[in-house]
Amino acid sequence: MPSSTPIVSTPDALAELAGQLRNDGAIGLDTEFMRERTYRAELCLLQLTTPDGPVCVDPLALPDLGALCDALGSGMPPKAAEAAAAGARPAKVLHAARQDLEVLFPVVGLVWPVFDTQVAAALAGHPAQVGYAELVRRLLGHELPKAHTRTDWSRRPLSPEQVEYALDDVRFLLPLRDALLETLGRLGRTAWLDEELRALGELAGVQPDPSRAWLRLKGLQDLDPGRTALAQALAAWRERRAIAKNRPRGWILDDTALREIVGRVPRSREALAAVPEMQDGIVRHSGDEILAMVEAAGIPDPPPPLPRRERPDPAFTALVRRLAEVVQQVAGELGVAAEVLAARRDLERLARGEAVTAVFRGWRHELLGERLRAAT
Predict the structure, then answer these.
(1) Partners of 54 in the beta sheet?
(2) Fold of 210-296
(3) Residue 152, SS3?
(4) pLDDT tens digits for range 239-265
(5) Considering the entire predicted model, what is its pTM?
């Protein structure tokens, strides 16, 4: 694709670009999207690197992006893709890839294999959530402009300044990958990176799973069995409806209202209408469905009291602190952020009695397993 044509907006130009990408050893990749009024993100711009430089693809001007499926998507489940040697396909290099992969999945399928520069940077000793611009500054000494961070990418035409800003988002990805691979090779951590990147090829990370939607909601843990079943049913119902209508979850049922239904267990339309943040339209159009889920949960009437928030057990708190100190010590020895090794919730699982092998796998277990066992 000639560098004088930075925006691909016709099927013929897209086909030409796809042919180039199939022969590349690595492809820098980024997306711009909108999702304020929808469940699924609307892909507004796709940025890619080519041998001739970066280029933008305008999905709003094209009937579809099917021509890119072979170059970007694996075309097979990730396990099979690994067995078929991921190196046969160009690596897709992204920064903080998970959201981009989710956005691209309905358009081109599962993008694989992936190199995430944020993941690699964390293993190389940079902050765990280091931003793209900061990483470019640290490793390449280039300052990126911030003028268009709040651009509405769905509006057309795009200005030359907006296009240049978008191109910058992929222009430095391949040099970042080279620099990070060199550092991780020198540190002997390429196997760690391979393990982390394999997780990005899991379909579960890009496909919505209504049965697990309730886990995203705070304040719904440690409930009685009936309320837990109700929380799961309500969250799954909301997720399925949001997907079907392509509307944000909160437009279907507000988080606060969902939690209040679980807590109050309303058994009539009047009780349902009295729930805080409950909209009249939801009671009118979906009240019977919600009340049927309440009934199906089998919660006694009156319901059992909600669990009291008690102070954490001092022994439990002390154990979590000891485990965190072990992680901090190992992180200091490695020169990485402690959160790269373990999240607090992982340490709390250990403190509640789960085996180390149930919490940590692979390189994390090799580094932390014995030392955490000794601290429990």
Answers:
(1) 49
(2) DNA polymerase; domain 1 (1.10.150)
(3) coil
(4) 999 999 999 999 999 999 999 999 999
(5) 0.88
